[in-house]
Amino acid sequence: MAVLSAKLASAALAFILVAASLGLIEAREAGIGIGIEIGARGKPRQREFDYFNLALQWPGTYCQRTRHCCSSNACCRGSNSPSVFTIHGLWPDYNDGTWPACCTRKHFDEKEISTLLDPLEKYWPSLSCGNPSSCHEKHGTCSAPVTGDEYNYFLTTLNVYFKYNVTKVLNEAGYVPSNTEKYPLGGIVSAIQNAFHATPKLACRNGAVEELHICFYKDFKPRDCVVGSSSSSDVLSSSNSCPNYISLPAYASLGAGNAESKISWVPDDVL
Ligand code: U2P
Known about the structure:
Blueprint: H1 6-21, E1 36-38, E2 44-46, E3 51-57, H2 59-62, E4 68-69, E5 86-93, H3 117-123, H4 140-147, H5 150-163, H6 166-172, E6 183-184, H7 185-196, E7 201-205, E8 208-216, E9 222-223, H8 232-237, E10 245-246, E11 264-265
Helix pairs in contact: 4-5
Bound molecules: ligand U2P.
Ligand U2P is lined by residues 29, 53, 89, 91, 93, 99, 101, 133, 138.
């Protein structure tokens, strides 16, 4: 496959930006300027990804930002709201820190994953009422060279999530949900390193863990998430806005019974 010359690459870039402005793809997430190739019909195509990033969300932190409830927002399930790390996505990523997105025109079809809906609702729920991404199967289509069709993408993601159980690893190391404790970032990173022999990446909000990423080679053997360096000080400083001591907040019930609550229930079609 011929990689585009500089001139054609800028034309391809213009195509992507126009497409993005039309809402066809998300420009920031389309691997702009890297590895754009020409497909069989002369259309720009994103090159194959380098590794997988299993992005997990911590509902105890994420749900603190909830302002609207709708039927799909798992933050609003009261005592049934998730109390473990949940799946944000299995992202195909490039080693340079960018990622492809929406690699084919294939649309998400819920029927193809009907047998997986129960575990997906529980472990891969939406934690907001926002609109989904401008293309469906944003990550699944780009993972397809490894994970195959839609069903296999979701099944593979669930299997990897269950096999590498971050919540269990942290609980067993004494890092349990708490609204008073703060834990050393280095201790949390070490617990994951010891369990999976790979370095995770964390992102925090106001000192609380919001996301935890674990990364895999294409054969799903764990690898470091940090790109380009493996020194532990880099790991900690690249832990996006996490201070040295971080919290893992317990989920606080939203809405009903909370006089201070500014959370409103809104019909799904309004959002
Ligand atoms: O980080 C903001 C959003 O960018 C997308 N993202 C980020 C990092 C990465 O490696 N891959 C990736 O896709 C995610 O978009 P989403 O899947 O949520 O639409 C992430 O939320």
